[in-house]
Specification:
This protein is an alpha/beta fold. The chain is built from 11 helices and 17 strands. The chain has 3 domains: 71 residues, Alpha-Beta Plaits; 81 residues, Met-10+ protein-like domains (GMP Synthetase, Chain A, domain 3), CATH 3.30.300; 176 residues, 3-Layer(aba) Sandwich (Rossmann fold), CATH 3.40.50.150. Helix content is 29%, strand content 30%. A hairpin with a 2-residue loop joins strand 16 and strand 17. Helix 6 crosses helix 7. The longest helix has 14 residues.
């Protein structure tokens, strides 16, 4: 049976990000089938987005459109989390339920509101019921902190574990979020960068973690050489496992140590491309990226945070100045965008910069 619904129409390449974002904002109508054609995807919505939500959508999904269209109703729709909890929790608590989960392999991660903490076991069991592939539900128990960007978690349902195998665009990643940072929200960015790399390039991944950028690049481009650096010994252990798991041993070189020292000692002037996914401190390593690049120049993928009232223009100016300090020139910003919202009025961004 067809049903007329408001929808967000977006280009096919932005589909995964749009699904995550509309779900997070509580806009996604999960009772209706998503409609796809050769160029676009239409995502059914439960309501019209407000002005703030429209701004967020437009910032992260270029050229999205609101329209009305006919959608097929799902024939065997699984119960939603609010439906499972109806009758077990008061309505006002169900309304405060987080709109989205992070799914990492067989682990679901939730930000539990304070008013629901007393009921977290019940919520955890409901998540297991509504997500059949999930075996563990974790609640965030603190903020990301420390040199290795880790946070604490509480097991609220299922198996007592923080490790799993996560699938992403044909790659498999062994992860342990208690020991090494990993975000499934960056999957589109890992893939985007991998598609830009040419087969004969040498890439230096300054903060490689368990290898989502490095392995994705090597999996896509058999002729590359990727030097994957991380200071966290636990991350490097997982990185080595992921190199073997994805059969890219001949393309990815894992290196344990501080990126500054590793580049100085082994990788000066070798790179066509440098990845700088350490948004908290990337500005402190622009000199390292410049040193790693070949004398003829190359591309850096520079990640940072922008918080209102700050702007992307100020971040570009700061990067230009830092590059100049190292006797290099920022020739062109090839690409720029907010990658994901990390807090109210704060986004992680990426700048792809051509450096001479």
């Amino acid at each position: 049976m067809s049903e007329l619904s408001l929808c967000a129409k977006i280009e096919k390449r932005h589909a995964e990000k749009a699904l995550l974002l509309t779900s997070k904002l509580g806009l996604l109508n999960k009772q209706l089938e998503i409609h796809r054609n050769d160029t676009h995807v239409s995502i059914p919505l439960v309501r019209s987005p407000n002005d703030a939500e429209v701004r967020i959508l437009r910032m992260q999904i270029p050229a999205f459109q609101l329209a009305n269209a006919l959608f097929l109703r799902k024939s065997d729709s699984r119960k939603t989390l609010p439906e499972v909890l109806a009758g077990q929790l008061p309505a006002h608590l169900i309304e405060n339920m987080p709109r989205a989960l992070d799914i990492l392999g067989e682990i679901a991660i939730i930000q539990m509101p304070p008013e629901l903490k007393a009921h977290e076991k019940l919520v955890g069991e409901a998540i297991l019921e509504t997500h059949k592939n999930v075996r563990t539900v974790l609640a965030k128990a603190g903020s990301i902190a420390g040199e290795y960007r880790l946070r604490e978690y509480r097991v609220i349902a299922g198996e007592d574990r923080t490790d799993t195998v996560h699938n992403e665009y044909g790659c498999k990643f062994m992860v342990d979020i208690a020991k090494a940072y990993f975000s499934p929200r960056l999957s589109n960015e890992h893939k985007r960068v991998a598609t830009l790399v040419q087969s004969n390039e040498t890439v230096v991944d300054l903060f490689a973690g368990v290898g989502p950028f490095s392995v994705s690049i090597a999996k896509d481009k058999p002729g590359v050489k990727v030097f994957a650096i991380d200071t966290n010994s636990e991350a490097v252990k997982l990185l080595k496992n992921n190199i073997r798991l994805n059969r890219v041993e001949d393309r990815v070189v894992p290196l344990h140590g501080d990126a500054r020292h590793v580049v100085e000692e082994k990788l000066s002037g070798v790179a066509d491309r440098v990845i700088m996914n350490l948004p908290e401190k990337a500005s402190e390593f622009v000199d390292v990226a410049c040193k790693a690049l070949k004398p003829s120049g190359g591309i850096i993928h520079y990640y940072g945070f922008v918080r209102l009232p700050d702007s992307m223009d100020s971040k570009k100016m700061r990067l230009t100045q830092e590059v100049k300090k190292n006797n290099r020139k920022l020739d062109t910003i090839l690409f720029e965008k907010p990658v994901r919202e990390t807090a109210p009025y704060e986004w992680q961004f990426v700048l792809d910069a051509k450096i001479l």
